[in-house]
Amino acid sequence: MATLNPQAAEANRIIKAISPTVYELLSKKGKAIYFPRKGILAQGMAAKDKDINATIGTAYEDDGQPMVLPSVASHIQLDSKDVFPYAPSEGSKPLRDKWKELMMKKNPSLGMKEFSVPVVTCGVTHGLSTAGYLFVDEGDEIILADLYWENYDLVYTNAYDARFKFFNFFKNRVFDIDSFRETVNTKPVGKKIVLLNFPNNPSGYTPTKEAAKEIINTLTGAANAGNKLAVILDDSYFGLDFEAGIFNESLFSQLAHAHENLLAIKLDGITKEEYAWGFRVGFVTYGIKNGNNELYKALEEKTAGAVRGNISNAPNLSQSLLLSAIKSPTYANEKERNKRVLKERYLKVKETLQNHKEYSKYFEALPFNSGYFMCITLKGLDTDKVWDLLLKKYSTGVICYSEKNLLRIAFASTPMNKIETLFNNIYSACKDCAS
Ligand SMILES: Cc1ncc(COP(=O)(O)O)c(C=O)c1O
Fold this sequence. Notes:
By secondary structure, this protein is of the alpha/beta class. It is built from 17 helices and 13 strands. Helix 7 packs parallel to helix 8. Pyridoxal-5'-phosphate binds next to helix 7.
């Protein structure tokens, strides 16, 4: 790797002085990255209000408006200047501030304690990857549940040469806290990267309040024992909680100020939360006990540097659309409506399983209470075969996890009036397979 840029050295000095833990947790790339404030960007900023600004790589008309194609602009009601030029690498400041404000509202136990301003990424996947860039070195172990979103393989093992160390997710139909505790506390004491995703893909499970407390105590205990933890929280499905008694804040609200040895890294986005899958806007937010503005600024700068070096910046159009939507007086009701529809489907799945005792001969649901999905475990059947029959004979598509004997069912994408048929089809395919 090239010699350390002075801007990286300065950010590292600040980070190390305020939180030696965060400095230790940074990967080699994380230590080396910096936001190039002193280069082209700084010179562009310096020229911003000058009579002649011949610095930036954006075309403008003679009257100062962005030079656009009317056939594109005619579909957009927002002001061209909020849409066509580049967004900053760290993201639109008004949107970042608004997202932070919303995060505090959605997670009241965060209180008024300090945490970073979210940095915008190109969707949550890019947030996950950015966390990998900053905190994962070749050969590092990442602790995660044995039920996980498949793309973590590409993001972490392929791109950053990490190794996965799994804990068992469920035991006796509850979160397997013993397995989690044992995995997190595996010797030697040192750097630990933990990746948690609630509501979980594929299971649709969010911990109960009691289970959440145990998870938090386990992580805090490991920090207390001298481990340095980077806890990556994939909150993609945040807010889609369908039962009373489950922990309906992000674990970030409890972990962001839990211990000086524990850096909480919250990844969330508008993909599922705001029903805008193709817009590609996510956020990375940091919290650590005794973290201050200076530390968070340095981390935000490094994160923006990683964004700059990979995608330069996330789509301005999407950021501006979201910001204007959040300000709309109907926004909250619209979100409520969508959540209600998903909850009705969730309840329909529960009711269908309840009403068809015969299903238990061939399959059983894993615990689920939130998110988009639920899983069923097949009993002594060839999962691939059932999956294939479902497609070919019953015109029904689900996701098959053969090695776990699971089928994942996205109730979020299934119309209400097809949910019962979907399960009946699965039952019939299982019956065919068994005979
Ligand atoms: C657990 C989880 N994390 C991240 C993502 C990706 O989110 P995005 O589309 O914002 O990259 C998904 C999408 O399916 C997901 O299920």
